[in-house]
Amino acid sequence: MLNTFVIFLSRMAAQVINNFLSSDEEGGGLGFFGYMAVTIFLELVLGLLASLIVMWFSRRREFRADSGAAYLAGRDKMIGALRRLQLHHEPSHLPDQVAAFGIRPKAGAMASLFRSHPPLEERIAALQRI
Question: 18 near 30, Cβ under 8 Å?
Answer without folding.
Answer: yes
